[in-house]
Amino acid sequence: MNLYIINIGMTISIVCFYLGYSQRLKNNKLHRIINTIGITSNLLAATFLLTGKYLLGGIETMGIVPLVPEWAVHVHRFFAAISLVLMLTMGFTGYTRKIEIHKKIHLIFLILYSIIYISGLLIFQNAQTLEIK
């Protein structure tokens, strides 16, 4: 169940990021609203995940099992952290209207975030699903 909560939050965020991206030239106010929802969704899902990992005994106690070697999980986390910094930078530069910086990093962020999102779906499995098989 916990993995579904995390995946739903991350799915909402990636959908919002691409919807917001599609509105960047047509309706900047809508672009900001949609991306704010995406950032908030991502931060809520990440907070839920990190609380379970560091305060509640690890992801395994949450019923989340990695399907890959530990080094691959660390690589995923490393790039997820970079993606987080880029996401927060995108939000900050967008709201403060530092457009040049915002434009320079938007494609890097979207590509990296997409890779992290897909890898997260592939790397982690619900422990209950593994028991059923």
Written description of the protein model:
The model has no long low-confidence stretch (mean pLDDT 92). The protein is 79% helix and 5% strand. The chain has 133 residues and is mainly alpha-helical. The chain has a two-stranded antiparallel sheet with strand order 1-2.
Quaternary class: single chain
**What about the largest sheet?**
2 strands, antiparallel
Uncertain runs: none
Strands, total number:
2
Q: What is the molecular shape?
A: elongated
How are strands sequenced across the largest beta sheet?
Answer: 1-2
Radius of gyration: 16 Å
Order of helices and strands: HHEHHEH
Ends distance: 17 Å
The helical percent reads: over 70%
When the domains are counted, the total is: 1
The total of helices stands at: 5
Secondary structural class: mainly alpha
Average of per-residue pLDDT values: 92
Give the percentage of residues in beta strands: under 5%
List the SSEs and their pairings.
Layout: H1 2-22, H2 28-54, E1 64-66, H3 70-95, H4 99-123, E2 124-126, H5 127-132
Antiparallel strand pairs: 1-2
Helix pairs in contact: 1-2, 1-4, 2-3, 3-4
Tags for this model:
single chain; two-stranded antiparallel ribbon; mainly alpha; 133 residues
Write a compact overview of the structure shown:
This protein is mainly α.
